[in-house]
Amino acid sequence: MGHVLRALGLPMGVAIGLVAFACCGAAQDMVNMSILTGANGGTYHRFGLDIAAIVKKICHVDLDVRDSQGSIDNLARLRTEPFAQLAIVQEDALAYVLLNKSRHPTIKDWVDKFRYVLPLYREEAHIVVRRDAKLRTLADLAGKRVALGEPRSGTNLTATLLLKAAGLLEGPSQIEEVQIGAREGIQRLLDAREAARVDAVFYVAGQPVPLLSDSENGIGGRQLAQLSLLDIPANPVKHLYSAAQFTQSTYPWLDRTVETVAVRAVLITYDFKGPQCDNVAMTARLIGDNLEELQRFGHEKWRDVDLNAAVNGWQRSPCASTREKTAVRACRFLSDREPVAATACRRSCEPGGNALECLLCKDKVESIGR
Q1: For residue range 221-275, what is the model confidence (pLDDT) as tens digits?
Q2: What pTM was estimated for this model as a whole?
Q3: How many domains does the chain have?
Q4: What CATH number is attached to the domain comprising 135?
Q5: How far, in Å, CA of 246 to CA of 272, rounded?
């Protein structure tokens, strides 16, 4: 269990032809509204840009799309970072938080204060290896050096849960854990120097990921030809993950069809009670009303979005469930200017700042908007 607690970090922008949003009036100031996503170039980040494109088109204002280390980072920052109203996280992170709410006061606070807005798409577990390494399945990682992802990422949590269930975190089959992200991990896979070596790299993201797609921000085609993906032939955690596949139609450099597992991404928010609810409702409505256009022009994973999927154990935000079907004043935000208290929040919420001061300051800012 200690492995999983460590994973928690505790002791397109595209041009979208959009459907008209009927309730919209004149745009108001939204400079303080943001969404926490993931690494720049990843699927979370692309989804954030797509959502921001909707807001820009309909409301003529900018939704700030913020990079992050991933799901665990987003959970912590949603609670403490000023003017972070939305975040994308993995459902297994939410499930683990719910399961362990009594084990740490911070986790209990997350459960008490967070609500989900919309279920999104399924993210696949990529386990990248060298093709010449002769590794084929998850079980072949026994005794290997494995990059699990950055410590505050959802990838790290998923990798930890899968490896623990497969018996690869203890005993004679124990792997050697390396806490680095996917890009650095794959670069090490391709590096011939022994000191840099890793044998496998976990990366949980919606396929196709730019990093593995010979894109401008990805790994080149010649290097991709040196790689393969591991099979997870039997789902070791069936209550958290569903079956999925990688094929050559998605990744042409693959040498076969690969069985894996997937976890759903979820858009979440804080349990707002006041005017900020209107913006959460607005975002939910814009996504729902323009889903068909997003599926045509946005990231490929919009085609996998199921807005009716269950998010087990979590309450839906009343901002989304009760206000999305009624007229709301679109583009409304807390105020035209950032509250004075936010300056102090920035200082205390920076790395190395006073965590308690940060929480109190954030509560103070939020209370202004209720």
Answers
A1: 888 999 999 999 989 899 899 999 999 999 999 989 999 999 999 999 998 877 7
A2: 0.79
A3: 2
A4: 3.40.190.10
A5: 39
